[in-house]
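REQUEST FORM: STRUCTURE PREDICTION
Request ID: SP-0412
Submitted by: Lab K.M.
Chain count: 1
Length (residues): 404
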Amino acid sequence: MPPGLDALKHVVVLMMENRSFDHMLGSLKAVNPAIDGLAGNEENPDSTGVPVTVAPQAEYQSQLDPDPDHHFPAVDKQIFGGVTTAQNSTRQPNMQGFVKSYFDQQFNVGHSHLIMNYFPQKMLPALTGLATEFAVFNRWFSSIPGPTLCNRAFAHYGTSFGQVSMDVFYWNKQYLSIYERLVNNGHKAKLYYYDQASSSLEVVNLLQNQPALFGTFQDFLHDCSQNLLPDYCFIEPNYTDHDAPDGSGELIASDQHPDHDVRAGEQFIATVYNAIRNNPNLWPNTALLIVYDEHGGTFDHVPPPACTPDGFVAQPSATGTPDPFHFDRLGVRVPAVLVSPWVARGSVINDVFEHASIPGTITDHFLGDYDARSPREKDANTFLNNLSLPAMRADDDCPSFTND
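STATUS: Completed
RESULT:
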């Protein structure tokens, strides 16, 4: 076993919101040709048939308003260019429907072109810095071509139990969450939501009668500083602009969901990284995965591949498309970065991953053989073997951020 895996005691997952790989990291192809980003000539036709080329003109805020549609029918249009199975039973993903889909939000041709904008590297120093200093995944896809809650369910359970929407429901207990699995087997696990005023709906679903599995972001910072971090933890950003509970001022949403200020998310990513990096007792034995739940309707050029079905079927009444969905293809590609002093600088990982890889990886590392999980999770690639250096990188060989 590589020494980095021998030393590994903690795995931290930070899941951000609603941005595609090309939108956030597409500029990095110019830095490292091995990164499957943008060449600059990628196009999508608009609603009038005029081709729209990608442009490095994304803005931190006020550009993607209204929020791009990322529900199942819209994502199907983005991936397949608006061609349905009723029109072509052998249709193939061509990633040609993003501009047409954004046009549907307010029927403004010019505004629909903005969905093809992406961020230059210099605008995202935290995310792109970690991607180039550690490891970036070329092929991490959201688990289904749909919205937030069902995709986040894959990160917690390895399945969405047949859900493809934002409906609030208590997950079927056919499979335990990764937190319950770990705690039931003598390990510590926790989901850190931002605060009482800002947590995602799956926290409500997961919480039920298990308050010991949850903490706030301030608890995460405290646990890092006091060497109390659990074996596995999952971090949620702040989803809303709201007043701080202590009256100290307004807290700005840091999830990067359009149209929240992307700079607040940059600061949040840096804060999480620094909390681990700056503790010499944590840094050598902790791996941090930064990933996004789904693409949020923004453009990506890589067609999502087929995948192992997870045993559920969503009927047309749920998908809003002509056909049932058998959970047999992945959603749109999202940014994903693996951070550890045991990861070689500039690593580019080309295997296919999805959110079921998260509970799959954590289960394999901490529990070993564990049968009671979804077919998708069992078949998902795991990512900790990328902690592959024979010796840990020196302290001055790993970046620090000052913008937290």
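NOTES: The first strand starts at residue 10 and ends at 16.
Reviewed by: T.R.
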